[in-house]
Amino acid sequence: MREIAKDTIKEAMQSHSICVLIPTYNNAGTLAHVLTDVLKYSSNVIVVNDGSTDETSSILDSFSDKIHIVSYPANKGKGGALKAGFNYAISKGFEYAITIDSDGQHYVSDLPLMIKTVIENPQSLIVGERDLSNVDINGKSSFANKFSNFWFTVQTGKRLKDTQTGYRVYPLKHLHGLSILTNRYEAELELLVFAAWNGVKIISVPIHVYYPPQSERVSHFKPALDFTRISILNTILCFGAILYGIPARIWSKFKDKRFFSKESTWFTKKKGQRRDASLTLERIIRSTYGLVFFLFWSCLVFTPYVVFIHNFGRNSEKKKLRLHKMLQWISQKIVRLLPGTNITIEGIGETDFEEPKLIVCNHQSHIDLPVIMSLHPKIVFLTNDWVWHNAFFGKIVQEAEFLPVSAGIEEILPKLENLKSRGYSLVIFPEGTHSEDDNIQRFHQGAFFLAQKLGLDIKPLVLHGAGYYLRKHDAPFRRGDIDLKGLPIISQNDLSEIPLRKQASYLRKLIRDEYAKIASVKENAEYYKSLVLYKYAYRGWKIVSTCKNVLSFDGLSSFIDNNNAQAVRILNSGYGIFALLYALVNKGTEVYAFEEDLNKHDIAVNTANLPKNLHFVHSVWGNEVETVSSDKTISLQGAMAVSNSSPVIQIPINS
């Protein structure tokens, strides 16, 4: 780990309410040195004088202005000292206590690693794992450690390589069994067992250890007595594992929503790649309904009808118009009945199509066709070959005189002239295909060449929301409203002197500018909430629950929608739910989302198709935040703080 300034570590310990707890008994030879080193990193040090009879008291008196001292006359044992120290730390409002032995075996330089690990894994119990392979440790101590490791696995179902280490970080709000803790060495094993039973995450990190020559060591371990006591304790804990441990573990998993915590990849991934929006049962049901509705009318009604009228009787103009009116009727049905959306049409009247027009529109999805067909019966489309030859509705398209672009101008121009003479308007999507992100692509000149050749005025349409509702390569319907807006008709006389290339560029800009106006109004927090929920769906019970809680927070929409900042810092961003919604709504704002919890950060950055203006940053010490300038700083619930910055807006969201 790179070296961190000691003042930075002190600030992190202060902001996270972390203290150092040192139980000591007759270690006067090393205590002063340990305290001196610890005070370089922490301003909150608690020393428990466990009835020492050597010079410990006078040494502590020399540090009394810098440390908290808990003292009592008679020796209680390490368990008793820990219990006294924990109770004192809790009374002072600390949330974590780092325990370190006073005999000098632990390296104080490992404190930053212990602090970093607990900040990255909040409410976890961090265990400093010693490498005992190259140290001079007696056989009894080695056996005691292996003995303890074995019984810990039996009692909890979890494995730890070093259950006897005293270098630990305890989450004080999640200490279990403190009131029944025994007073001797075995207490440290008890704390681990009770923590595991109650669902506290236990993490091992490698630490350095120093053992002086055995002749110089001060040891309070009494092999016969302590082994007997530990054996009795392990017998009791084995019974406790059955009567209390197993039920407690099940309850803690349920309470902390750790059941169904694994990602359901069938819903969240496709061919190994994360979906832009997870499949949900709601999406599947609504899309199945839409598909059944479509297949019923196309396969069982319209296709048989088209085959019948095509093969029997005279193919009259009246018969063709009847088909177009039926297509308009079913399109209007689709527009009204599409599940999960409301379709709004404005700026378009019946009189707009009394005379044939060239209708140009941005292309967003397969929904575009029925939405436009619902406007008027006398509308035909230039289509691609996929539509022309489609097994389900190809016959309908052909009978309705839609024309394939691939046929070429020479072949389709006479047919278009015929359609114009019969009063039909022509719809062309000048982009040629719909984009994956709804950006309006370059307009091809062919549409405007046809308008010029046919002498057609141009009716521009602007479509918004269809590509969001039915995403390219993401077939199931989402939730989201669709808007179709008509712009004023452009006379061919006004375009006659303008080159086709400039006509294409002008119409694209016209439609793109209007699209941006619609998006600025429509694409607010409410609009994107469903997408954010889709992105986090089926990624674990706790994650989904948190997402729903964030999205239902009172005042969330008004806060996110009212933004005028160019750059925003979001502290304690959690799984990134709030930050993602903020970035989706405010596309012109650079959003920097900082998170200490490593698991939450990893979940956030592994969300599919994150906006380009969203930047997730894993920050432990807080100084990373200061390197990013912003117009606004927002802090969600959590411990991360910022110094030397503009005022921080506090939002009580559990992210």
Kindly summarize this structure in a few lines.
The chain is α/β, with parallel strands linked by helices and 655 residues long. The protein contains 25 helices and 21 strands.
CATH-defined topology of the largest domain = Spore Coat Polysaccharide Biosynthesis Protein SpsA, Chain A
Write down the CATH class of the largest domain: Alpha Beta
Could you say which structural class the secondary elements and strand pairing correspond to? Answer: alpha/beta
Please compute the radius of gyration using only Cα atoms.
36 Å
In terms of DSSP E residues, the strand content is 5-15%
Q: Report the uncertain regions.
A: none
Strands ordered across the widest β-sheet: 3-2-1-4-6-5-7
Overall form: elongated
Number of helix segments? 25
- First-last Cα distance: 28 Å
The assigned CATH architecture of the largest domain is Alpha-Beta Complex
Residues in helix, %: 40-55%
Total individual domains: 3
Q: What's the story with the biggest beta sheet? A: 7 strands, mixed
Give the tally of β-strands. 21
Specify the CATH homologous superfamily of the largest domain: Spore Coat Polysaccharide Biosynthesis Protein SpsA, Chain A
Mean pLDDT level: 88
